[in-house]
């Protein structure tokens, strides 16, 4: 493993989140492998195959007017032609505007994510993304009360 592998994986991981923020579906699509991919969005079932995974991102992008990711706790591990990135996605998002406003209400969310990459002749490509919501203390209290 060389430092350049780690940097290249970090760049691809960053490009993935930037494509989401910019609503750039073409760039996002190009960052995924062509086959045998999987994705788990928080609260969703496992999506497999390029068609299912990319449809999910098209759906998310079409229903999200604003999204921004602040990544923390990022760790990159490269072993041969595979790499794993773990991070916390600090997400700020907004839905459709109401009553003539520019943007709907903003909502914050914490998600821990694991992104798995595979080296290809075109560079590092996403093989799998798994996001899981982080429950806050108030979320846990609400579950205990149910």
TrEMBL record:
Residue span(s) of domain SnoaL-like: 9-134
Pfam families reported in the protein's UniProt record: SnoaL_3
Stretches of the chain forming a coiled coil according to its record: none
Name by which UniProt lists this protein: Nuclear transport factor 2 family protein
Naturally occurring in which organism (per UniProt): Streptomyces antimicrobicus
């Amino acid at each position: 493993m060389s430092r350049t592998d780690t940097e290249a994986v970090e760049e691809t991981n960053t490009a993935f989140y930037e494509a989401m923020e910019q609503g750039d579906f073409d760039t996002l699509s190009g960052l995924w492998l062509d086959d045998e991919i999987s994705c788990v969005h928080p609260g969703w079932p496992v999506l497999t195959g390029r068609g299912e995974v990319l449809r999910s991102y098209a759906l998310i992008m079409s229903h999200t007017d604003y999204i921004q990711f602040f990544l923390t706790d990022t760790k990159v591990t490269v072993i041969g032609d595979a790499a794993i990135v773990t991070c916390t996605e600090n997400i700020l998002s907004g839905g459709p505007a109401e009553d003539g406003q520019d943007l709907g209400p903003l909502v914050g969310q914490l998600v821990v994510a694991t992104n798995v990459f595979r080296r290809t002749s075109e560079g590092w490509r996403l093989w799998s993304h798994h996001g899981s919501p982080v429950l806050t203390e108030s979320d846990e209290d609400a579950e205990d009360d149910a």
